[in-house]
Amino acid sequence: MVLGSGLDNPAKQKELSRTLDLMKVAVFGTKSYDRRFISAAACQPLEFTFLEPRLGPDTVALAEGHDAVCLFVNDRADGQILESLAELGIHTIALRCNGFNNIDLSVAEKNEIAIYRVPAYSPHAVAEHAFALIFSLNRKTHRAYNRTREGNFELEGLLGFDLVERTVGVIGTGEIGRVFAQIARGFGCKVIACDPHPNTCWADEAGVLYRELEELLAESEVISLHCPLTAATHHLINDAAFAQMRDGVMLINTGRGGLIDTTAAIRALKSKRLGYLGMDVYEEEAELFFEDRSLQILQDDELARLMTFPNVLVTGHQGFFTTQALSAIAETTVASLVAVARGETPDERCRVKR
Ligand code: NAI
Known about the structure:
Elements: H1 10-15, E1 23-27, H2 32-41, E2 46-50, E3 68-71, H3 79-87, E4 92-95, H4 105-110, E5 114-116, H5 123-139, H6 141-149, E6 167-171, H7 175-186, E7 190-194, H8 200-206, E8 208-210, H9 213-219, E9 222-225, H10 239-244, E10 249-253, H11 262-270, E11 274-279, H12 301-306, E12 312-314, H13 323-341
Parallel strand pairs: 1-2, 1-3, 3-4, 4-5, 6-7, 6-9, 7-8, 9-10, 10-11, 11-12
Helix pairs in contact: 2-13, 5-7
């Protein structure tokens, strides 16, 4: 195994390198589908321990006796937990997701813990889910489904709009944002985008126009968020942003919950500035998502309020949840871990750097 393979100093990296006959990996927060797809991709010299609890202060001890941990979006790897992992001799974290906002990168670096992620796994899965939200909110298929099952075939309240020729704003034109934009172009939408690193060659070919954020907010009839959650993008959509938007705008968030200030979104829904809200992610989702809580009393008043609006649709972080994406996630995760176990350098694109 390459201990501290996240180090940029090759000499130090070499000094810490050794290969492992068997690499034991503790996989936190696993569900049946994680076990299925990771087991299908697994190979020598990896041995997986599938743990149901998420990584957190009370569960970090479960990593003892392992060489690496495998985490998902709501596992917590803050400074204290990373220090504990390092004390247990764990210097490799394989994220079976793209985003890494749940990891304290400076503490990881200080403790020579290398982080690997899955930089791209079927961006179509998430982009298509964003469209599932758009179509459901627009044509209200979720309401129609319930009505017709009750024998109610009335159309009152189901009025939608043609998506063709609407102006769709894409915030973040990375892997997912570009696929999303291309799907929107396929539906005949005018697509505008913003990104601090514009991909102008792609935009010219795809017929997408880059704008400043303020212009995008003011022009778009549908806005979809596809940028990562960072200190700079936290609450990117706040009161000031809503004030710049068109009345009745549709906002779709399949990025990360913290991109939207939930309190401001509730205000914008009440004032009708925000006409539709589709969320696959929620800023307080860590305590809620991925579990059946139907028999519990929901303690989150903001989420409870959001779900009272007829024009809000919440899904529980399922954008990535397709067969193709789960296979790709498992294969990339296994490939990174195998490379580390063999003392090789994993695919550079998977390395998470500060
Ligand atoms: P990516 O890294 O390929 O692209 C992100 C893009 O956002 C980059 O082009 C970057 O320059 C841009 N960006 C950064 N700051 C920005 C800002 N302030 N304004 C506008 N653009 C900005 O990432 P990818 O694969 O496209 O994923 C995007 C996000 O989607 C991830 O960070 C993750 O949070 C989320 N995601 C959600 C999933 C779900 O199941 N709902 C699954 C996978 C990812």
